[in-house]
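User: Teach me something about this protein's shape.
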Amino acid sequence: MEDLQRDSVEDFKNKQKNPLVLVLDNVRSLHNVGSAFRTADAFAVEKIYLCGITGTPPNKEIHKTALGATESVEWIHVPSTLEAVEGLKSSGYQVWAVEQAEGSTSLADFRPWAEGKYAFVFGNEVFGVEEEVIRAADGVLEIPQFGTKHSLNISVTVGVVVWDVLSKTLAQKPQS
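Assistant: First, the predicted structure itself:
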């Protein structure tokens, strides 16, 4: 890790994170949960909310894809996704559901502000984000797709959204 100039787990826990939170809404696949942890570690995400039936560490299936990121990324289990969303909103986060829905904003058109705090809700692999959560969110983001399939795997979706939002916010900040 030293050769790659990577933080130790302790250093990572103590460093300032990007003001992004991931909310997993009843995600069934433990591999998808592990992948979300790994992405959260890669992009120094503040925290992951594991909601409803979403599996939690310690779990060997989550560990298989997280590769230790469950030790570095802060997480919490919340029984209700709606409860998590309401708590995040009251803490100053702008909450966006990531879903294909009427009135959604294309990720290509989404313009986060550099000083904003954002939470992104990713839904169940079959049913998507719960309807009541979509209604409670500040908006809905949709990833433009150009092929024959109508959805992406949640682990891919997490990576695309986090990188897109982070790269847009970093581009707005002065270079040091």
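Now, about its shape. The mean pLDDT is 94. Residues 4 and 16 are 20 Å apart (CA to CA). If you'd like, I can walk through any region in more detail.
User: That's plenty for now, thanks!
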